[in-house]
Write a structure and sequence with these properties.
Number of strands: 20
Catalytic activity: (2S,6S)-2,6-diaminopimelate = meso-2,6-diaminopimelate
Subcellular location: Cytoplasm
Largest sheet: 18 strands, mixed
Radius of gyration: 19 Å
Strand content: 35-45%
Subunit structure: Homodimer.
Protein name: Diaminopimelate epimerase
Keywords: Amino-acid biosynthesis, Cytoplasm, Isomerase, Lysine biosynthesis
Distance between the termini: 27 Å
Bound molecules: 2,6-diaminopimelic acid
Length: 294
């Protein structure tokens, strides 16, 4: 059995996150451990953010992101805020540079406790997302759900925030759509060779929208930061909103997404610590710390 690693159960606006402290170790959180932790109601999570020692000079940490099905994700905005909150509480620092499989990013905790993550540059090319084939528009007119002459969902915007996203624009309340039914079909549609995060979005003002997301590898979640960013940039790009948008997420509350003139997407929101423990990164066997156990 591997030696236990500390973890914190946290959430980013209702996105259930485990922050695992893998610093000073050479092992990884194995997919089997993620699946075991996800299956246990006490530790059920959407993403594990594993903090490793830095790989590149000038960065503070290398962060590996795992979904609840054990797959790896390139980006997780809400999880990054949790990582910042945990490290800020430990070190008193409020500014960090991380490396993920998708690249290097900066994040800051503000005086009011909110955290901003620079999610980098969005990409819209079909190979970047990736899609299985080229598409002509800013939307994928080929993809629809429901009857051909009266589709329930159709013509999504597609974008990469490091990870693949499709955003379906809807006029009605986002809760009136059966995302739990359509989500798995769309996530695994052959047009998405690496699967995709599926979002339905209702624009409610030139600076506001409400979203629900079916996450690749995690299913319905209380919030998805990278989806909020993908939806915000896609809305601005198609002139549905301006470049600064408050995105309301299913768990309630909202993220602020700002698409700056330098093309960087800055996402700002809260992160919350719940409890801490230790776990075996190979098996997922875990124990809650005594100090805060009930
Ligand atoms: N919850 C995350 C997204 C996880 C991404 C993941 N589901 C994938 O791309 O596979 C967020 O806040 O951005």
């Amino acid at each position: 059995m591997a030696s236990p690693a500390p973890f914190a159960k946290m959430n980013g606006l209702g996105n259930n996150i485990i922050v695992a402290d893998m610093r000073g170790r050479t092992d990884r959180v194995l997919p089997a451990a993620a699946v075991a932790l996800a299956a246990d109601p006490a530790t059920g999570f959407d993403q594990i953010m594993a903090i490793h020692d830095p790989r590149t000079p000038g960065t503070d940490h290398y962060v590996v992101i795992l979904n609840s099905d054990g797959s790896t994700a390139q980006a997780c905005g809400n999880g990054m805020r949790c990582v910042v909150q945990a490290l800020a509480a430990e070190t008193g620092r409020n500014s960090f540079t991380f490396e993920t499989v998708a690249g290097i990013l900066n994040a800051d905790q503000h005086g009011n406790g909110l955290i901003s993550v620079d999610m980098g540059l969005p990409r819209f090319g079909w190979q970047d997302i990736p899609l299985a084939e080229e598409f002509r528009d800013t939307r994928m007119i080929e993809l629809q759900i429901g009857p051909i002459d009266a589709p329930v969902l159709h013509s999504p915007s597609v974008a990469s925030m490091g990870n693949p996203h499709a955003i379906f624009w809807v006029d009605q309340d986002v809760w009136s759509y059966e995302l739990e039914k359509f989500g798995p079909m769309l996530e695994n549609h052959p047009i998405f060779p690496e699967r995709a995060n599926i979002t339905i979005a209702q624009v409610t003002a030139s600076d506001a929208m409400t979203i629900r997301t079916w996450e690749r590898g995690a299913g319905l979640t209380g919030a998805c930061g990278s989806a909020a960013c993908a939806a915000a940039v896609s809305a601005a790009r198609t002139r549905r909103t301006g470049r600064s948008v408050a995105v309301t997420v299913p768990a309630g509350g909202s993220l602020t997404v700002e698409w700056r003139d330098n093309d960087h997407v800055i996402m700002t929101g809260p992160a919350e610590w719940e409890w801490s423990g230790t776990f075996d990164p190979a098996t997922g066997q875990w124990q809650r710390d005594a100090e805060d156990a009930a």
